[in-house]
Amino acid sequence: xxxxxxxxxxxxxxxxxxxxxxxxxxxxxxxxxxxxxxxxxxxxxxxxxxxxxxxxxxxxxxxxxxxxxxxxxxxxxxxxxxxxxxxxxxxxxxxxxxxxxxxxxxxxxxxxxxxxxxxxxxxxxxxxxxxxxxxxxxxxxxxxxxxxxxxxxxxxxxxxxxxxxxxxxxxxxxxxxxxxxxxxxxxxxxxxxxxxxxxxxxxxxxxxxxxxxxxxxxxxxxxxxxxxxxxxxxxxxxxxxxxxxx
Length: 246
What we know:
- This protein is an alpha/beta fold.
- It folds into 2 domains: 2-134, Response regulator (Rossmann fold); 144-244, CATH 2.40.50.1020.
- It is 32% helix and 32% strand.
- The chain is built from 8 helices and 17 strands.
- The strands form 5 sheets. A 5-stranded parallel beta sheet has the order 2-1-3-6-7, with helices on both faces.
- Strand 8 and strand 9 form a beta hairpin.
- Helix 4 runs antiparallel to helix 6 (121-134).
- The chain is elongated and about 65 Å long.
- The N and C termini lie far apart (55 Å).
């Protein structure tokens, strides 16, 4: 049984969540509710839940204000939010599940199922720390991205990523002074996530960090030389990057 706390400033949303959990997630038992940063903190400390479903907009602040009250967490976290691009990007970087209002019951069930597979406190806290680091300001100088493999979780500074390479529906990260990491997500997903932070798609199978482009090559093929010496091809339709970068 998963003991859950719901923190949302809207009574109706809390009521709907209780019904959805009852009907679609029978293993989840709601043991507490709150509508503010203050009462949310109190109910978490008092009830010690396994799961917190947290709205970003609360009556006396926001969800980040509440999370920063904890030096570490021992509960799984699912964010409930209206559409806010800045916040959603932070969740994606930190690999923390979020649900958009109105809440879809299947997405809720899937999020809880995924969370059950990441139940170790040290893994949860790595994601938690990355989330808070990425939300200290809207444009932190170096974002932290959480990369999950089958066996491990890695927290990497985006400035250390040299390039990403597609392998079917997986993406391999080539990282400065670190082992390569392969995750089960497409390159397109990372292109969308990292494009605002200096990464460009130069080829169907390659995404490069502009900071690590050291040279441009015209022969024998259009390509970039990266900071680690890797040669990355540039597709013909992206040849404008040769002038724009390096």
